[in-house]
Design brief:
Number of strands: 7
Radius of gyration: 19 Å
Protein name: Prevent-host-death protein
Family: Belongs to the phD/YefM antitoxin family.
Helix content: 25-40%
Number of helices: 6
Organism: Candidatus Enterococcus willemsii
Distance between the termini: 32 Å
Length: about 180
């Protein structure tokens, strides 16, 4: 399996220590964040002040959108006894938002679902599943009433970004298996 290279600027911790302003200039010129590596692992991301403030503004606007839509209006099937959990899930994953596959997986694990990701290859597998089926499926660890609960995150790859692992969440379904 061939791994894709990130199509974003990268630098090392050593370069950041030498000249942080060069890294900020790199981010400004590329109009994207710069991934900072430490011993071949991403240690963080550097943004310009403008980029950071734009992200905060976008986040604020997304959170300000009305979310008082009922499950019936969104065509979400109801899973008996899990209405509150379903609402929590939909609050954690905003439909219409772009999210990285890794972040999606981390949020799903935090909500009690079994992870799909096993290292870097898992993220690639998640994106491939999304491309092939139009969804990424998760199973809830705890089984209420001995029923398996499946969450399906319906979406599509985000082709507007340079990062290969970004996706747009369209809908979120909970169903009993």
């Amino acid at each position: 399996m061939e791994l894709k290279k990130l199509e974003v600027p990268t630098t090392s911790i050593t370069e950041v220590k030498k000249s942080p302003m060069d890294v900020f200039n790199q981010a400004r010129e590329a109009e994207t964040a710069v991934y900072v590596f430490n011993r071949e692992k991403v240690a963080g991301v550097m943004l310009t002040q403008e980029q950071y403030e734009n992200l905060l503004q976008e986040l604020h606007e997304l959170r300000a959108r009305p979310t008082e839509t009922t499950a019936e209006e969104l065509d979400y099937p109801s899973v008996s006894g899990l209405e509150d959990f379903s609402h929590t899930l939909r609050s954690a994953l905003i439909t219409g938002a772009t999210i990285s596959a890794k972040n999606l997986d981390e949020r799903m694990v935090a909500l009690g679902f079994i992870t799909k990701k096993t290292g870097f290859g898992g993220v690639v597998d998640m994106i491939n599943e999304l491309k092939q089926t139009g969804k990424i499926s998760y199973q809830l660890r705890r089984k209420p009433n001995n029923q398996s609960v499946i969450a399906e995150v319906i979406g599509e790859p985000d082709n507007q970004t340079q990062l290969f692992d970004k996706l747009i969440i369209k809908k979120i379904y909970l169903r009993e298996a």
